[in-house]
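Long-time lurker. I teach an intro course on protein structure, and each term I like to show students one example going from raw sequence to a predicted 3D structure in token notation. This year I'd like something fresh instead of my usual example. Would anyone be willing to generate the tokens for the chain below so I can use it in lecture? Attribution to the forum is fine with me.
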Amino acid sequence: MPAAALATSPAPAAFAQGWAMGAGLILAIGAQNALVLRQGLKREHVGAVVAVCTLSDWLLIALGVFGLGAQIQGSPQLLEVFRFGGAAFLLGYALLAARRAWRPVAGLQASGPAASLGATLSAAFALTYLNPHVYLDTVVLLGGLGARQPPTLRAAFMAGACVASAMWFSLLGFGAAAAAPRLQNANTWRAIDALVALLMAGLGLQLLLQPLQAPTS
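-- Reply from a regular --
Happy to contribute to a lecture. Here you go:
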């Protein structure tokens, strides 16, 4: 394929959109991300935790894009519910992140007794599948955004979101040890929360200003 045709192909654009949306949502520092980061700081069971969180995220993203997305695309009422509900969640999370940035808490510490592999994986599964924020991010929000893609581009959108997920969890887990001194500083988390607030507010306003449209076959 010529370079010009590749540059204008819709598949790379859908991949990039999926990556950007996935990265924007997963940047929010929640309980699941904090667990991965903490294990990286402690250098305990890092690979196993990263694998569990990444593969689980891929499963939920696929469910959202191909399962829930296929359902909401045929219902204008559901599209509006996800539009306003997603916008409310994103803007609410942006306010919480902005509050944390304004009033930072102590940095995340790597101290504490060592945990067994079983206990660590149990915590990873619980913080993934029992955490409503995970479903809102991956199944509802990414599924709703994926439903805007034509059927032939949904796989590219999902692939972009999955790549963003794998990159983020790997960075958190394997990069935490090298960045431990900075990540234990409250000012670093203040900067992260400020960035999260901007990203979440931008995505929320986008949903409010740009109504969701069911893709055409």
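Some talking points for your students: Residues 12-104+115-209 form one domain. Residues 20 and 49 are 24 Å apart (CA to CA).
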